[in-house]
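The authors assume throughout that readers already know how a fold can be written as discrete tokens. For illustration, here is how one protein appears when written out as sequence plus structure tokens:
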Amino acid sequence: MNALIHKPAAPTAADSVPIAVFDLDGTLLRGDSFVPFLVGYALRRRRFWPLVSLAVYVSLYACRILSARTAKERLLVAFFRDEPVDVITEYADRFCENWVRRHLRADMLMEMRRHQQAGHRVILVSASPDVYVPAIGRSIGIHEVICTRVAAQGRYCVGTVIGPNCKGGDKIEALKAHLRLEGPPGESYAYGDSRSDLPLLQWVRHGFLVCRHGTRPVSRHERRPDARGYRRGKVSHAARAAFITFGLAFCVQWAVSVLVFPLYKQRLAGYVPIVAGVIAGLTICRPRVCHALTRRLEMHPRRAFLTGLTALALGARLACLFVFPMEPANDHKYFHLYALNWLEGKSYGGIGWPHVSHLNKDGGPKAFYPPGMSLLLVGWYWLTVPTPLAGKLLNVLLGTVLVLLVYDIGRRAVGEAVGRWASLLTALMPALVFYSSTLGYEIALGVIFCAIIDLALVAPRRPKFWHVAAMGALAGFGSLLKPICLLIPLLILAWWVLSGARWRSLLYTCGVVACMALVIAPWSLRNYRTFNDVVLISTNGGYVLYSANNPASEGIHMVVPPPPGETDEVSMDRARSRAAVQWMLHNPGSFLRLALVKSMLVWGTSSTVMSYISFDRLPAWQENLCMAVINVFWAALLVACLVASLTTHAWCDRRLYLAYLFLVYLFALHLVFEAHSRHHVPVLGILALVAAAGLVGIANKERAVQQTTES
């Protein structure tokens, strides 16, 4: 703003006078100051509508649909358009006295004072706007300030950004203009905390990357991946070998399962879509075809690609709502009915379940199903209407969010091309598209898995508090969806150890567990009051385990005679758990044989999800056609992952290790518990990332060959 822009003074000394340049957020201050300033100003002025836009624009920026400059400008317009400049200035001074004073970093403030005492020119350079940065500079004794400029008209703020966003390389250009020099003085210093500060830190003679507990020098040739927090060359060779071995073994058992499954089901016609899928996969994996397709994906601007991708994913899933039966069946019916009970003020459960009819006294089980999906539905029904169509629309939206999360993981972990390939595969994957038309929890679980992986990639070694809290909250709600998520902290711990966080890994994991406990505790307390016994989440764990591990088991869900000692659902859970464990210990050979069958049932096909989608309510030809389409894509995905494992280093990328840990965990879990192809739905996005990494690797090799030939 014209009234708020800090007018830089002309240089007062020769170009030999040392300068010390300091970033603001994360360097002089702990954390970000822009969002706290916006929120504080809106609350003080009782302007609540801009707070809604804050969540929208931050989400669009996080998904890279909006650039940093555009998102910042739209927020400034939403919060400050037609606001008096004097009022903003007054609040900026108050903000400095309260929030800024509490968040100053004492070590960096002392470093700044040392430079001032040595006679150096201290300059504050920040991408934050000039509605408050000059006030912060004055409050800590810095009189030369360079920051993003905001337009004003008369005595009122306009909110639009004037000139470039003062970030990355633009900081250097702004500093050159301020100093009236083309290069830095002989003795020059700069301090910053992020990747975007690297150009500035390498431009000066002495650049320092600010970490949580101090600073370290930055070389002129330091590359960006180092600033992301990964230790170059520090990843264990044993871990790398383990992931490569698992990747190859997993793809081999997947291929064997796909080949054996039609024989096991005595449906030889099932080989027709498999052969078609293998041919399609081999065609796409041909170097020239793969290179051409990758170039096609890369030629579109990011915003145009993401807009088209979102429309494609959303449109395909919406279309399925009107193709498949509307009324939910199987477990999904109970999720819907329990949500309706809550809306009517009734307690959770209380609906008789046919497979435990001897426990249906007092209306039925009270905690047989985990409550997560019903919690999601009751919140959504409260916002919309309590109908199956509305509930399925929620899964459609979650499926679209999953596509965008897979894109962001691929982009962050490997590169833009991998993100585009993986998100396109996820958007078009028939199993995911068709399953979005149900009320199943698997899509939501996949979103939670990918959101945790994405958060881990943001700060692999030194996550901030909100990263840890968000991971814990997601893992906690995931546990309410399906209790298998209770062990997610162990996967996150392994990830931080492999990323080089060392002893801090335990500290961060304790934070994740604490946040998980805060999410789960209210439900556990409700269960204690209901049963007068400890039930962490649900009472169906023993039922599911015994169903898959008993003398007559075939690896899938089955109704078995209850063992002795069942008087209520809590005793049922414990009695069946004990019976299942005893059978596994006394029959190790049968258990291992059954584990092989379960692996085939989970990974040998993706088409049995149709049993939950149609429940034999579709015409036979329509259901068979849907299963064939699913299997064609499933076989093509297998070929892409297998080629990636054999010809590229897809399983070696340490930035995808957490994704692979989720895959390992889910694979091992369903060697023990009951098997069904719907259980691999939460990790289909991860398989798309593996395939995408392989396809881009093939394309890059072909590109190198073509360049060599041309030269």
